[in-house]
């Protein structure tokens, strides 16, 4: 081999080594971190939204201290209070009257006094009752006033109060004592002495006002998994209406299709060989029906959403702003998420948008299932909105916000990171067009949306509450249901009420109905209601008179009265229904916002039912009424335990008042029928189980407001689409060539239970 050849080979080897070193050095170098830019600040006066802000933990504590020192009666901490005690049940914000707030926000008036609403249970009185006080001003209270009669037209009977955690503890102790009277039956049916069984409440509690009798369903309890799919066939009826816990009684026992007077009678029937027993083994954690433990090791990470230059929205106190949107957000411990003063481009669109209630109504051939009509507001939709799991419940880089509440205790609790806010790329164009004739070009805009989300866990179900704000000026409200189904023990003709999903488990049919309040202020407070729909007319063809043509035309109607604007559930509704302003846009059409409902609701409870009036909001998919300060909510937390004499009956709101040029409220019901099936195990999936509604601009603007978005894309055949200056999508390769700064994963959601 010649020297020249050796030198050439040596040179090639050195070049190869140098290239490999460069590659290795490049791979080893961490990518640069993304540089966050501050989002543009909106032109809304700082601090105004605090008029809607939830109470701080310190404000709640101040209210408790004030009440303890100024009511003149002993108050026991609700976490250990007996029914015969007095206690503070809850403390929440007293939202000021709308007129006061608007004078402050729009007219330069004084800031309304900051006040709290305190709910107290007075069990240690000659006439036990529930009383509501407004306490203020905060942060240093100096007065309180009883508003119970003003709000409800009379005193609140004590039996209407929601069941407290302490009451459930005492009920469980009673059930455990009663189970000890049937030891051999329990050993045979359930491989149990009772201590590995857990009870699940039903509601309402009886058949008439004053009743407090609750069916409790018993399940095998397995650590680390949901017990809701493991019923043992045993249910008990507990009378817990007496103020003295020692006088509570077990009134009835149900097992596998038969009723007994007591657990002692159940035991006697078993020992006599007169009872058909289904012998169940204690489920094992690794094989129990409904286990959510992963069955495969983790795979490669999925796609990750991140903001290369930081969030494009801004969160300050209780207000979020994003590309023209401004929203004040909060959380009612009973009814859940509530938004106020929703503005787009500086104009108020919605004064209040709030969840009112979530109903779950079941069918079964077991007493617990067949009598269940959960009104989740009485349990606490907001209170049980726990910490969100970063990267699963919300995007990893979302903004997470703590919420404070005071319920059944004298000290506030904090649900950390229980509300999230993020910009969502839906991977769908908001609008686009590819022009393939005449001039050749492409124009479009990504559908990026601001999302405010909370998730409530209400016993077995998890509800995902979403409020979304689009670049087109539209508001989208959506709820998804997931979590565990509730179940009954499978026996007899069980499949008339659902599907069998396990050896002895009946997934019981039920409906989910949710109710919302939407106080729209479209170009001002005074609005009217207009409907539009299509009809066909048959006309002679103008250019060929011997022929006819079916021509669609638009039928418009202004609805004058509330009765006209109450649309029954599942009945046809006009396809276009809008809140209209007296003012017009550039094209001389009334500035309007359209309500578009997306729902698959089940059938409403028959009006002949003795408890129907307590959920009479469910009669209507949409009802529009005049706004009244004395009609702030469509239901009450007291309706659950006395649905036969409802504290608030929504049907009373509709009394045929005029709705032309008035301050109006839309009350919207959405929901779906759920017949559980095998694929609901372990959990119901969100796919196909989402409903909601849109608020969409309809001639409110002169054109689609998203044309002003800085995210718009346009390039023609005459341009270089790969040039960053001509096409912002071409800039992504450099703008997004950075590593997102992900905070360490942390979860503290188990600490507050």
TrEMBL record:
What does UniProt give as GO cellular component?
plasma membrane
**Which keywords accompany this UniProt record?**
Copper, Metal-binding, Oxidoreductase, TPQ
What molecular function does GO assign, one term?
quinone binding
SUPFAM superfamilies assigned: Amine oxidase catalytic domain (SSF49998), Amine oxidase N-terminal region (SSF54416)
Give the domain of life. Eukaryota
Domain (Copper amine oxidase N2-terminal) spans: 75-143
Active-site residues, record numbering mapped to chain: 376, 461
Looking at the record, the residues that make up the Copper amine oxidase N3-terminal domain are 161-258
Which BP terms does GO give this entry? amine metabolic process
- Record-listed E.C. numbers: 1.4.3.-
Chain segments carrying region Disordered = 290-310
Q: Which residues carry this modification: 2',4',5'-topaquinone?
A: 461
What cofactor does this chain's UniProt record say it requires?
Cu cation
As for family, the record states:
Belongs to the copper/topaquinone oxidase family.
Q: What is this protein called?
A: Amine oxidase
| Native source species | Daphoenositta chrysoptera (varied sittella)
